[in-house]
Amino acid sequence: MMTIDQLLSLPEGKTLEFKRDLSSPKPFLKTLVAFANTAGGRLVIGVDDQRKVLGVVNALDDEERLCNLIADSIAPRLVPNVELITVQGQTLLVVEVFVSSSRPHWLKAEGPEHGVYVRLGSTSRQADQALIDELRRTAEGVAFDELPMPELSVDDLDMLAARKLFQGINSLDDQALRTLKLVTAYQGRQVPTKGAVLLFGKERALHFSDAWVQCGRFIGTDKAAIFDHIDIHDPLPQAVDSIMLFLKKHAMRGADFSETRRKDVWSIPLTLLREAVINALVHTDYSQRGAPIRVTFFDDRIEIENPGILLPGMTVEDMRQGVSKIRNHVIARVFKELNLIEQWGSGVRRIFREAQELGLPEPQIVELGMRVRVVVRLAEVVPVVQISEQVTEQVTEQVGRFLECLKVSPLSARDAMKYLVLVHRPTFLYDYAQPALKAGLVEMTQPNSPKSPSQKYRLTDLGREQLSKP
User: Fold this and answer.
1) How far apart are CA 235 and CA 199, in angstroms?
2) 373 C-beta neighbours (distance < 10 Å), count
3) pLDDT tens digits, residue range 103-124?
């Protein structure tokens, strides 16, 4: 149990706030509501902004007034622990609130639609309706991705893509679909869950417009100038490899010959980043609207940011200590079946352990607005200019093979991938097609309709000239 002296030495944050007195009730009532809805916390009354202990003048009267204010102003009823503690000859009021199983709590004067607050850092922020619903679901033990989508049927799932991913792992028969909670019973029929649509929905973007990933490589250490970007709309399990391909595209690669065979050595910690990417995909609050998952590559760091605050009862310190709660049970279960995660809740521990083993600065986990950001600092600065030179060297062989396959006639992406013996479309696009297009060696037969089903790639005059060189 933390002593009052230890408490006074800490900065204000998600679970701690100081107030001078009770003269302005609304701010501290918002704080107590936010504590109850988020991760609990302590409110210390009788301490000013400079952390000077002033005490309360009429301790017993203030205690009674505080308890009355809480009872009269907050619904559902909140019963915190209230203590009078003497420090430096002064009496402080310490109010301890635990995360509540009756959440969401709200200020009665503002009502259940506008009076719900959550704790973000050292501030209390008003919750929107989506977050209020999420608070209620988590209190009831219901995961958003387990909810049914009664307007849809199993035919709205891309079962071909799903079975391809599960090949050799699970047959995905009717029983397996129910066990994985990809389908659930609703009024006598089987319908897909939200998790199933997020994972394998044919029209996922129609139902979850922000369930995609935005990747960007910026020049320098801020967002003043972007060098490259891509939007990834792959099914969530496949998005892991697509994101990692983008990061590898902009990383520097060397070689280590210290063992019996050569192995690649990358300028970015790939294993650590893969864990952070998977953590973001599994723990995103897909009920939120407004922005996708973001992966941002700067010269000195990589940031992975997902929508949704930490689940009630969780703090950043809890995550650092290996405590975990699963937000999306269906998505996590599928990722585990596909061996993308070893066990529930182990990813964050591995992120910190990997950073320590590599001698990297400890990763940061920060709540910003209604989002969680993981910041991974790189061992050395990786300037874009060096990356572009290395990418040119790396893609020369791939581009040459792509030009070779177009020598006889134009080919569709599918036919070109068959020729190149590729099965992963992002690999073809990022490592073969896009570099050739940017270099002016290849062009599309329908440049104004890049996504046309009849689209093909053909050599340009420059591409033919390149092929003719010895």
Assistant:
1) 6
2) 17
3) 999 999 999 999 999 999 889 9
Task: Give the CATH number of domain 4-140.
Answer: 3.30.950.30
What pLDDT is recorded for position 262? 47
Residue type, 204: R
Tell me the mean pLDDT in the region 255-284: 79
Residue pair 43/7 in contact (Cβ under 8 Å)? The answer is no
Please say whether the beta carbons of 218 and 227 come within 8 A.
yes
pLDDT digit string, tens, across residues 10-67? 999 999 999 999 999 999 999 999 999 999 999 999 999 888 999 998 999 999 999 9
Q: Give 463's contacts (C-beta < 8 A, 6+ positions apart).
A: 403, 406, 436, 440, 441, 442
- Confidence class of residue 273 from pLDDT cuts 50, 70 and 90? very high
Q: Do strands 16-19 and 41-45 pair parallel, antiparallel, or not at all (unpaired)?
A: parallel
Q: Are 108 and 73 in contact (CB under 8 A)?
A: yes
Q: What is the pLDDT of residues 194-247, one digit of tens each?
A: 999 999 999 999 999 999 999 999 999 999 988 888 999 988 999 999 999 899
* Gap between the Cα atoms of 407 and 402, Å rounded: 9
> Where do the domains of the chain lie?
4-140, 144-207, 213-377, 384-468
What is 213-377's CATH number, 3.30.565.10, 3.60.15.10, 2.130.10.10, 3.30.565.60? 3.30.565.60
Q: Which residues lie below 8 Å from residue 378, measured CB to CB, with a gap of 6+?
A: 267, 268, 269, 300, 301, 302, 360
When pLDDT is cut at 50, 70 and 90, the band that residue 291 belongs to is confident
Domains 4-140 and 213-377 share a fold: no
In degrees, rounded to 5, the angle at the alpha carbon of residue 176 between the alpha carbons of residues 170 and 181 is: 120
Structural contact between residues 426 and 245, judged by C-beta atoms closer than 8 angstroms: yes
What's CA 54's distance to the chain center, in Å? 42
What tens digit of pLDDT does each residue of 365-410 get?
998 888 999 999 999 998 885 554 554 554 567 888 899 999 999 9
Residues contacting residue 159 through CB under 8 Å, at least 6 positions apart:
172, 200
Separation between Cα atoms, residue 470 and residue 462, nearest integer Å = 15
The reported pLDDT for the residue numbered 378 is 95
CB atoms under 10 Å from CB of 272, counted, come to: 22
Q: Is 58 exposed, middle or buried (0-12, 13-18, 19+ CB in 10 A)?
A: exposed
Give me the pLDDT at residue 329, please: 95
Query: What does the longest C-alpha to C-alpha distance in the chain come to?
Result: 93
Could you please state the CATH topology (level 3) that the domain comprising 384-468 is classified under.
Answer: Arc Repressor Mutant, subunit A (1.10.10)
Phi, then psi, of 55 in degrees rounded to 5? 80, 170
Q: Are 330 and 199 in contact (CB under 8 A)?
A: yes
